[in-house]
Structure formats: structure tokens, C-alpha cells
Write a structure and sequence with these properties.
It is a single chain. The chain is α+β, with helices and mostly antiparallel strands. The strands form three sheets. Strands 1-2-3-4-6-5 form a six-stranded mixed beta sheet, sandwiched between helices. Helix 1 links the parallel strand 1 and strand 2. Helix 4 packs parallel to helix 9, helix 6 runs antiparallel to helix 7 and helix 6 runs parallel beside helix 10.
């Protein structure tokens, strides 16, 4: 097709990853779908396509005549729920997410508007300080609270279920299926299981309801188009689980940038929207430690959501094993 000659492809560190992008028929169908969806909205492609190929997605920036770019995203089967989930979130929490222009759930395709400046780029320009992390976590937690009554509906869209009471079973599955763990690591993890059950029981006893967990909320997964405003995206690792598991990743990234002294402020900002559940500040804070540890399960599970031919099984298992071993890391809070 006419786009082929002008398309640039960025493979990052994954030169050998095999994704659907390598198939001419797939590319042709994707190009046609994008053009048809844009034409239905009175828009057309105007310029070179910029492609980013990764084992977990194919992402394409597409310039459009008379306006900003749009983005095509293709998910592997294990995260094909992202398009329908994003569309659902646009209805339920429209202030916090992108509204897709089009979604093809069967093929795992989405067409999205541009979200503005990435938070990571804003940080790189020193245009946001530690307080911005507090703002984004308040907004994110507020979104999670709103989504509590819709948790089951999100699971019906295909979002994986990792409910608090089911996390020990998820741990068992991840442990049994992983081929990269050494015998010593496997033994250590097996001995940890009773404590893991206790963490889950402790969280469940507080009555904080399960809701959507982004599971990978770092500074490259949200837009910060203007002061005080954040837009959350890239839901391919998401699950319905204990909400506080979400705190692990942003807290680690913020502490790396600003130092560990920022963590109590981030914790309290995140917990603020949860005070309406009848729990004291001390009770809410007591839940952060167990949830911090259990967030490692979501990261371990997410490594299974790659294109089936994108990478070798050993590499996937190795990354998942590293995540499982983070269960032993003492929470920074």
C-alpha cells in the first residue's frame, strides 16, 4: 500500500520480536481499517506513519490533515480487552481517560486521539514537581472509587479477575507455571505462601472493595496536558483486584526521581479518596504494606500478555520470576 514506503518502524530493544506487523496482510488490513474509520469521521491520513513495535503491542502514530495525530494500537489476544475497557472507561469516568475513536474488539485494535504531553516529558522539562505525583494519585484513586460498582461489568469485558480473596490461587498458578525459577527460589516462594494468605485475609477483613487496578501506572502511562489534569491510558496490564496494589509502581518511580521522603505524602494523597469507606486513616495506612507486596503478582501475571510469537518463553518466564521474587521486598511504606 501507499503507506509502506513512508512508514518508519521503531523496535527499541526488541529487534527479534515477531509480531503481526511482520505480516503484509495484517498491515494492509490495519491500514484499511484506520483509513475507513477516519473517513467515517471526515478525516484523512496526511503524512508518514510512525510505528513502535514491542512484544506486547503495535503502536502507530498517524498524522491527520487539519488536526492533531491519532494513534492506532494493536493488542495481543491476552490483552485484547484493552479497547473495550477504554471505551467503557470513557463512559464511566470520562474526565480521566481517552475516548476511543474506534474499537475492533475481535482483532484487539483501537484508534485513539492524541492525549497531549506525556507526564514523563513534562517531568523531563522540570515543569512538574513532587506535588504533581500527589495530584495524579488523588485523581487515580478517585477514579477507582467510582469504578467499584462496575467491577463485575469490567470483568465481563475480559479484564482479568485477580480479586483479593483469589490472589493465593493466582500465586499458586504463577508459581506452578514458571519455568525460570531456581529450586531455591521456588522453595522460598512456597514457604512464603502462608504469609501471602495472611496479607490477603488482612486486606479482605478491612472491607476495601476490589476495583480496577492499572498494574503499571508509571510516568509514561499517563498524560499531563495542563497543570492539575491527568489522563490515564495503556490498560493492557489491568485487572480487577485490590485497588491499593496500584500504588506499588507509581511510588517506586516517584521515589527514584524525588527520593524516598516523598512516599508518605504519596500514600496519604492516594488514600484520601478512600476515607469515605468508614475506615480510619490508620486502618487505611495499614492496608498499604500488604497491598504493596501483592502488587508483584499483577506484574508477574502481566508478562503473559505478549504476542504469542513475540519472544521466547524463557525470557517471559524470567521476567515473571523477577516479579514474583519482589514479594520478598520490604514495603517502603
Amino acid at each position: 500500500m501507499r503507506h509502506e514506503a513512508s512508514t518508519t518502524v521503531d523496535r527499541g530493544r526488541y529487534e527479534d520480536a515477531v509480531t503481526p506487523w511482520e505480516e503484509e496482510s495484517w498491515r494492509t488490513a490495519a491500514f484499511r481499517w484506520v483509513e475507513d474509520e477516519l473517513a467515517a469521521r471526515g478525516r484523512r491520513v496526511d503524512g508518514a506513519w510512525q510505528v513502535r513495535v514491542r512484544p506486547w503491542s503495535v503502536l502507530v502514530r498517524i498524522p491527520v490533515a487539519g488536526g492533531g495525530p491519532v494513534w492506532f494500537k494493536a493488542n495481543p489476544p491476552a490483552s485484547a480487552f484493552e479497547g473495550p475497557l477504554t471505551a467503557a472507561l470513557a463512559r464511566l469516568v470520562p474526565r480521566h481517560v481517552l475516548r476511543p475513536l474506534a474499537v475492533d474488539a475481535g482483532r484487539g485494535w483501537s484508534l485513539l486521539p492524541d492525549g497531549g504531553a506525556l507526564f514523563r516529558d513534562v517531568l523531563a522539562r522540570d515543569e512538574a514537581g513532587p506535588g504533581a505525583w500527589e495530584d495524579l494519585l488523588r485523581q487515580y484513586a478517585s477514579m477507582q472509587v467510582v469504578l467499584v460498582p462496575h467491577a463485575r461489568d469490567l470483568e465481563l469485558l475480559g479484564v482479568p479477575s485477580a480479586r483479593t480473596t483469589a490472589l493465593p490461587a493466582l500465586f499458586d498458578t504463577l508459581l506452578a507455571e514458571n519455568t525460570a525459577l531456581s529450586p531455591e527460589q521456588r522453595a522460598r516462594l512456597g514457604a512464603l505462601r502462608p504469609r501471602l494468605v495472611e496479607w490477603c485475609e488482612e486486606l479482605a477483613s478491612l472491607g476495601i472493595p476490589d476495583t480496577l487496578d492499572h498494574a503499571d501506572l508509571h510516568d509514561g502511562q499517563l498524560f499531563h496536558p495542563e497543570p492539575g489534569r491527568f489522563t490515564f491510558f495503556d490498560w493492557g496490564d489491568a485487572a480487577v483486584s485490590h485497588p491499593f496494589c496500584s500504588l506499588l509502581i507509581p511510588a517506586q518511580w516517584a521515589a527514584e526521581r524525588h527520593g524516598p521522603a516523598i512516599l508518605p505524602r504519596l500514600r496519604d494523597a492516594y488514600l484520601e479518596p478512600w476515607t469515605g469507606h468508614g475506615l480510619t486513616a490508620a486502618e487505611l495506612r495499614s492496608a498499604v504494606g500488604p497491598a504493596w507486596r501483592l502488587g508483584a503478582l499483577g506484574r508477574a501475571r502481566a508478562w503473559g500478555r505478549l504476542f504469542p510469537t513475540a519472544t521466547d518463553a524463557g525470557a517471559v518466564a524470567g521476567h515473571a520470576a523477577e516479579s514474583l521474587m519482589q514479594l520478598f521486598t520490604e514495603p517502603a511504606l
